Write the structure tokens for this entry.
Amino acid sequence: MRTPDHKYFWELDAENIRGRCILLDIDGTLVFASGSHLHPGVYDMVIKLREHNEIVLFSNGLNKERNLDVANKLGVLYVSSYWRKPIPFVMRAVPNPRKLPILVIGNLFLTDGLLAIFTRSYYIRVKRFISPNESIIWRLTLYWLDDQIVRLFYPRSFFLRRK
């Protein structure tokens, strides 16, 4: 199952996302998995979102130099943690002094979506930004499993509004 619009990150409607602390996934959302090349639309979307939100990048990827490089290119904060998504302790690393509602944006329900559920946050599942060089095994296992779990257990309304 797809989310209602199931768009790439850079195709989201930024005007309807306001007053949030956005925890933004990197791999598969902003760049190809383990890549560092940003789609040109990512820059524009981040600029639009920064106008009315706080943005924090977080990745389960272990390449901190690459993650910092992506954050620097976008002009946003990158945080890392001993914990990995979907463990709720990840949120301890996310600065949110204004106590804004958390919005998790990512491409994998098994990490980003579950984190949103465990922390009672909002969630937007975006279309995966997949490299043509990405392993077919990876695509057939993790991505297929992620899509099946969403299809079986979560109705479309979950993605429209999380209370």
The chain has a mean pLDDT of 87. Strands lie at 21-25, 54-58, 77-78, 102-106, 122-125.
